[in-house]
Design goal:
This protein is 37% helix and 20% strand. It contains 13 helices and 19 strands. A hairpin with a 6-residue loop joins strand 10 and strand 11. 23% of the residues are buried.
């Protein structure tokens, strides 16, 4: 950082102390933000469970001394969120637009941003924390996508049905004078009498617990070209897409934020972790132990009454199973003190709590527990996963809303000429006339053989076109399906025989 920038920051720091500029303890202290403190705490707790950042376990040893150890947990939050995200959206899903030119443009933006791979990854975090956001922006005359999780998104109004105004927080750390300095960029998206206003504010703090004081945007090199405020006219849709999990937020009925996958399952998750932690501890304590007299393990002492001859090792020096016990060697003797490991008991307990967890988050029995039925047919899989399929369908509704909102935001951004160096919009057209369809891959939930047989019957009954059959069952696009049909027609047609093969002229 240049000298004058450092001096300017010092001025801002000093002026904040006398009330000449803005400062924030917490982001929610900003009067524009409408998010209760308990919601921030709830989301922070969800994040700790998702990151497996849990407290140490306190216990007492055999001497009554208090000790701590790292919790040997099972990160079921991560497992469940990743499972649902992969079932809901994967690289085989596709977004289609009714207009061909608009469809080509949208999918080019998606390809440049690796959208179909990235969305599944980001959706996992959104499900784990309850909410999330994605916004398009222009960099180098290209439309890029920025992603944010629930702990970075702050609604600006209390409407629980729809969020049209938000603040997005981006945090950065930097070493200044051998000290860690914390910067927070707040990006406000608001409507002002029909105009869309984006406001950027940068805050600096010397502690991670506070947001700090408002400083110039050029205090960080990465924000030097960022405008403090941009006003855009003519937009109909916000330049972001907000996602929230399905279902009501029963922790705060007035909050627009979605509920985490695990917000109603902390008790059972703690029970799962506690059971697993105790089992791991029992495995450690269940290591084989053989009690022998202490003198059997000594070396370098007199042996056989001859002080000149040392006691050679009686066991492998690297062996850990022998435990020395003091006392008369004849009384101590040789004993096996190995404790049996209660594998069956712990497995039954884990399965019990895991089944409870499956029920609470809406996944079918056997998602995380072993299936007693062994190898299943495709039809059995579909049937046994009906609960998961229903849950997936509910999530798909929310995902579909988010993707459509993102598509609207991309087209809105592409239609503003001032965002591009050449002053030319990247897309122009009637946004309201576009229809968006999202093809979600059903994967294991659809018995493909049964589906193909039913479609074939429909073709034979002349109620389904052959081209549609090929596209539905073989993953072909329209162009490839036409090539297949042309090749089939060519192979099935009979060539006219030449006249002279019958002996004619």
């Amino acid at each position: 950082m240049a000298f004058w920038d450092t001096l300017k920051n010092l001025f801002w720091k000093g002026s904040a102390a006398v009330g000449m500029t803005n400062s924030l303890g917490l982001i929610i202290d900003d009067p524009r933000i409408n998010l209760p403190a308990d919601e921030v705490e709830r989301i922070a707790r969800d994040k700790r469970y998702y990151m497996d950042d849990l407290k140490q376990v306190t216990h007492k040893n055999s001497y009554g001394e208090t000790q701590k150890h790292e919790l040997q947990s099972v990160n079921v939050t991560k497992l469940a969120s990743a499972k649902l995200a992969s079932l809901i959206f994967n690289e085989q899903c596709r977004v289609n637009v009714s207009d061909e030119a608009a469809n080509d443009f949208l999918n080019s933006v998606f390809e440049e941003n690796d959208f179909y791979d990235t969305f599944e990854e980001k959706l996992e975090g959104w499900i784990a924390l309850g909410s999330g956001c994605v916004r398009p922006y222009v960099a180098g005359d290209k439309i890029k996508l920025a992603w944010a999780t629930a702990d970075q998104v702050y609604p600006l109004q209390a409407d629980t049905n729809q969020i049209n105004e938000i603040a997005i927080a981006s945090k950065t750390t930097q070493i200044e004078n051998h000290r860690t300095i914390y910067y927070t960029l707040l990006e406000f998206h608001q409507w002002d009498n029909g105009d869309y206003v984006i406001t950027n504010e940068l805050y600096r703090s010397e502690t991670a617990e506070t947001v700090g004081i408002n400083v110039p945007l050029n205090s960080l090199e990465q924000y030097e070209g960022l405008e403090p405020q941009v006003k855009i006219t003519g937009l109909k849709h916000p330049l972001f897409a907000f996602y929230r999990n399905k279902g009501a937020n029963n922790k705060n009925l007035t909050s627009p934020m979605g509920l985490s996958l695990i917000d109603n399952s902390y008790t059972v998750i703690d029970a799962i972790n506690r059971t697993h932690d105790q089992f791991v501890d029992e495995v450690k304590k269940g290591q084989r132990r053989l009690i022998v007299p202490a003198e059997w393990l000594k070396t370098g002492s007199s042996y056989g009454g001859q002080a000149s001859e040392t006691h050679p090792p009686m066991f492998d020096p690297d062996e850990t199973v022998y435990q020395a016990m003091y006392g008369d060697a004849s009384e101590v003797g040789f004993h096996d003190a190995t404790s049996p490991i209660r594998v069956a008991d712990y497995q039954a307990t884990m399965d019990f709590f895991l089944r409870e967890f499956e029920n609470q988050i809406g996944l079918s029995q056997g998602t995380f527990t072993t299936s007693p039925s062994g190898i299943q047919t495709a039809t059995e899989v579909v049937t046994n996963n009906s609960q998961t399929y229903q849950t997936r369908s509910s999530y798909i509704t929310q995902v579909e809303k988010t993707i459509k909102a993102l598509a609207y935001a991309i087209f809105e951004l592409a239609s503003v000429p001032s965002f591009y160096a050449d002053g030319q919009a990247r897309w122009s057209g009637d946004l309201d006339s576009l229809d968006f369809t999202i093809d979600f891959n059903d994967g294991v939930f659809v018995d493909q053989d049964s589906k193909r047989a039913a479609d074939l019957q429909a073709v034979q009954a002349q109620v389904m076109p052959k081209k549609q059959f090929l596209m539905r069952n073989y993953g072909l696009d329209e162009e490839e399906a036409n090539k297949w049909l042309a090749q089939i027609d060519a192979e099935n047609s009979t060539a006219e025989p030449e006249f002279d093969q019958f002996g004619g002229e």
